[in-house]
Amino acid sequence: MQRPWTPDAWTPTIYRTNPAQTPPPHPQLVADHIRHVQSLTQNLSTSPYDPDIWCARAGRLLSLGHPELAVGDAYRALLLCDYSNGHIPDFLSLSSPTGPISSQSPTEPASQHFPSQRLLSASSYRTLVQGLYDCHCHPEALETCQVAQAKFPADPFFQVKTAELSAVMEKKSDHIAMGPESAARQRDKLHDGAVLTIPYPWMEPLPLQRSQALIDSVNKEFQRCTSSCRLDYSSLGEAPIPKWAGRAPQVLGVFAAHEIDPGECILVDRTATAACSSVSACTNCFSNTADPRYDASCCSAHFCSEDCYQTALSTYHKVICGKDFTWLQNTVTGISESAAAMRPVLLCRYLASCVQAGTTLNPLAHPLIARLQPQLSGRHLDVFTLTETVVRPIQILLQLEVDVFANPNFDTWIIHTIWTRLANNKQGFSRGPENGGGWIDSISPLMPFFNHSCDPNVECWHEDTTTMSFFARRHIEEGEELFDSYVSVEEVPLEERQQILWPWFEGPCLCSKCLREYRHAENDTTLNTGSSGLFGSAENRPFGHIQQSTPHAAENIKLCSSLHRSPTANMLSLTRTTTTRAARQLPFPRTLPALRPPATAAAAAIRKASTTTPIKPEQTKDLFTRFAKLDPELYGILTVTLGAVSAFAYYFAGNPTGSSDARSVPAVPGSEPWREAGASGKYMYYPGGDVHRTPKEAPSALNAAVIPGVNLPKELHEKYNKYGKDGYDF
Q1: Between the N and C ends of the chain, which has fewer C-beta atoms within 10 Å?
Q2: Region (Disordered) spans which residues (predicted)?
């Protein structure tokens, strides 16, 4: 935050929904807040254990509309207040931290360091509660407020906020409980907050782009893994941009280094950055082989192969070797679907990788993080919680012997920025019980470079482990770009595809199939694109002007707002669903069948496991409703059609015989038995009204006989309408 930044570069991250949130700063005060943040950041570099500075910066960040950063600073201030008062929080004792923080004796009087600890603690709690409120983390705000109210019972802020948040939580809980989701998903819906994802104005340019040095490094990784592909600038960047796209993509892509035959294995991508909710035989890829083939020489960890051991050793294992992270694994025990608790477990691998690379280096420049692209459109929401985004990372870093107060490379804004990149690129799947069960989240190092196509030429597979295998779906020419599909949409119409894929790109898909079909539809004038794009203006697009989803290769954190009213404010309930890459069955045998059994049933099982949000009828109805909103002409057509049908039905029902007759049809003499007492028989008519033709028996239409000018009462109709009765078959 010490780097120069101005009000012109400042963009708040708060997602405003009600007046009870922190109001936006007056434009003339923005520059003053920025100067104070920069000054306080400079002070922290020399006095990192002064809670007063952390609390002051938290207040300024809250005023600037960065509640997630205010939460991180206020929480650190409270930790230092407790520590200086001789109280060591439980998680600090768990982590056994070393370094400068532990050199301050907790037995020294607090007044020697910070004379107004009580007032400072109350101020930090107020900032923390309001920051959580602004982030829509209502349960954590309520819990924190209750703790603060017990400590400061006379403070009216905590009394009022506790009452407000209790009312909000009651309505929010009742609303979520009506949904069909599992208890774990409902818990996440209730607890997950969110903020807008932006490039912070003080960020250096390098973390915001993929440098040529990174491209060269990734190409060396490709060369070590395969001779079939290479990294280069994607052909998507050269595609003509239609008027509805509104953007010129500059992206990287994977290209074939030589001709590739159908079914040929192109790449086996082994990763070290993954998390699993169940204990597995292999510590790295979570393979559950019966007999681990490789034992680590440095500790008691087991691996399925020397390759997995070397991958772990070169990435993260050196800094976690001998450390007990059982407490972290216990937080995800029993999880079999994507859940909030999995986020810190995956983040742990990345933090360990950064620490192993050197704590003096900016984690955003780490090769495994720098290659990942977040969604920085300014209208995208990413998940934020106190527990998963602040508390757990601090616990992990302390156990990795990182000073979370003095080392600015692991500040809250960096941790949150790392998470936004992981959320946009990770994939998740439920593992079969025969392989150990549980849920796996992972990010393969090379997979994020494969771009999406609605007509992919590459297929990726996993075998209930984090190792991904890529196969050719068809013959691929040398130099042709390789595409896989983020979700199975090959048979879906263009408009619906754009709806489904919108969360991945925050814009229309620009693959060759979509561009080709768009041009064809445009030529046929079957799409009304208007001047703002295929879906009209931004307000009419799915989810409005705020994009609430973040998938690329895996979990898409999709945040849908639901309004809840309290006596004082409208509160936003942010819910989360997930979307993942869906594995699909290849249309031909593979050349490496050993990598995957040939059973066709496995494809359906993998697809089911890879899709964390099954489509339900109400979701389909909601999708149609949202799509109809995109094109008002549909409502006009629907209204006219329903009006015409309703008018016809009303007229026809009033006089069905008269309504359906085209001309007068003479009755057949002697064929009207109801005109003579005691008579019986069948009534007749002339076919086509031609009296020269042989008469035929007449059926009825609804409640009247098909004879002109005859409308029988119900009782006579039932007596003389013989059509369909025994002995009177027509």
Answers
A1: C
A2: 1-26, 97-116
**Lowest mean per-residue pLDDT among 580-594, 676-690, 708-722:** 580-594
- Please list the residues that pair with 381 across neighbouring strands: 196
Angle, in degrees to the nearest 10, between helices 512-523 and 494-505: 140
Q: Three-class SS of residue 363?
A: helix
* 563, pLDDT greater than 50: no
Alpha-carbon gap, residue 363 to 359, rounded angstroms? 8
Q: Please list the alpha-helical segments (H only) found in 178-238.
A: 183-191, 212-225
Phi-psi region of 137 (alpha: psi -120 to 50; beta: other; left: phi over 0): beta
Question: What residues have CB less than 8 Å from 521, skipping those under 6 apart?
Answer: 494, 527
The 3-state DSSP class for residue 625 equals helix
Looking at the whole model, is its pTM more than 0.85?
Answer: no
Asked if the structure places residue 35 within a domain, the reply is yes
Phi, psi of 465 (to 5 degrees): -135, 180
Whether 97 maps to a domain, the answer reads yes
What percent of the chain has a predicted confidence (pLDDT) above 90? 40
Which residue in 186, 157, 154 sits closest to 173, CA to CA?
186
Count of CB atoms situated within 10 Å of the CB of 629: 17
Q: Domain containing 704: what range?
A: 656-720
User: To 5 degrees, how large is the angle CA 361–CA 53–CA 383?
Assistant: 60
Per DSSP, the three-state class of 429 is strand
Contact 428, 338 (CB under 8 A): yes
Residue 545, token pair as written in the block: 């002007």
- Judge whether 612 and 580 are in contact, CB under 8 Å: yes
For the chain, the straight-line distance linking the first and the last C-alpha, in angstroms and rounded, comes to 90
Q: What is the pLDDT of residue 390?
A: 97
pLDDT for 428: 87
Q: What is the mean pLDDT of residues 171-188?
A: 86
Look at residues 137, 166, 197 and tell me which one is the last residue of a structural domain. Answer: 137
Short-list 584, 322, 316, 303, CA closest to 462: 584
What is the rounded distance in angstroms from the CA atom of residue 493 to the CA atom of residue 491? Answer: 7
Task: Count CA within 13 A, CB hemisphere, residue 560.
Answer: 11
List CB contacts of 478: < 8 A, sequence separation 6 or more.
Answer: 256, 257, 258, 259
**CA 238, 239, 245, 249: dihedral to nearest 10 degrees?**
-30
Give the residue among 8, 151, 10, 19 at the shortest CA–CA distance from 69: 10
- Indicate the number of domains in the chain: 2
Number of other residues whose CB lies within 10 A of the CB of residue 9: 13
Model confidence at 6, in pLDDT bands (50, 70, 90)?
A: confident
Amino acid letter for position 645: V
Question: Could you write out the DSSP letters of every residue in 496-537?
Answer: HHHHHHHHHHSS---SHHHHHHHHHHHHTT----TTT-TT-S
- Sequence-distant (6+) residues with CB within 8 A of 703 are 656, 712, 714, 717
pLDDT tops 80 at residue 268: yes
| 669 within domain boundaries | yes
- How far apart (Å, rounded) are the C-alpha atoms in residues 307 and 294? 9
Backbone angles phi and psi of 293, in degrees to 5: -95, -5
| Residue 633 contacts residue 640 (beta carbons within 8 Å) | no
Q: CA dihedral defined by 586, 591, 592, 594, rounded to 10 degrees? A: 80
Asked if 618 contacts 441 with a C-beta cutoff of 8 angstroms, the reply is no
Reduced 3-state DSSP string for 405-427: CCCHHHCHHHHHHHHHHHHHHCE
Of 103, 137, 171, which residue sits at a domain end?
Answer: 137
Of the pLDDT bands very low, low, confident and very high (cuts 50, 70, 90), residue 153 is: very high
Q: C-alpha dihedral over 48, 51, 52, 55, to 10 degrees?
A: 100
Q: What one-letter code names the amino acid at 666? A: P
What's the distance, CA 692 to chain centroid? Answer: 75
How many residues can be counted in the chain?
730
Residue 679 in domain: yes
Computed over every residue of the chain, the mean pLDDT equals 75
Instruction: Report the amino acid identity of residue 291.
Output: D
